[in-house]
Amino acid sequence: MNIEHFKREHVELLASVTKLRELVQSGVQEHAQAILGQLIAMSAVIKLHLAAEDRVLYPALLQATDPQIAQTGKRFQDEMGDLAQVYAAFASRWNLATKIGQDPDGFRRDANDVFKALHLRVQRENRELYPLAEQI
């Protein structure tokens, strides 16, 4: 299976997280509008990536003849539901620049938690899941 598109999206996503961190480090209140813009852009990429995984990647993994590949695909798919919900709640909670600017410490805490989990997930997919997908 060709998964180059998924890999490119991971690179783009991690670059977006880096840009978001830079904005946060330079001042949440001062850059609340830019931070919101970055979150909106990231949310679109994340939603499209997850939809493509659900439509293409996971069905292919689940139908693999190798039971280890199918089981790993199922495990990753099940785990992703939780992270997708956590991210959606985060994006909903911080959907206005005024919310971000009024609670910079709360935003930093939430963003650190969510993006740490997202980063770990991307790394696990790159290291564990994508090599299996390339075998089918």
UniProtKB/TrEMBL annotation:
<dbReference type="Pfam" id="PF01814">
    <property type="entry name" value="Hemerythrin"/>
</dbReference>
<protein>
    <submittedName>
        <fullName>Hemerythrin domain-containing protein</fullName>
    </submittedName>
</protein>
<feature type="domain" description="Hemerythrin-like">
    <location>
        <begin position="3"/>
        <end position="133"/>
    </location>
</feature>
<dbReference type="InterPro" id="IPR012312">
    <property type="entry name" value="Hemerythrin-like"/>
</dbReference>
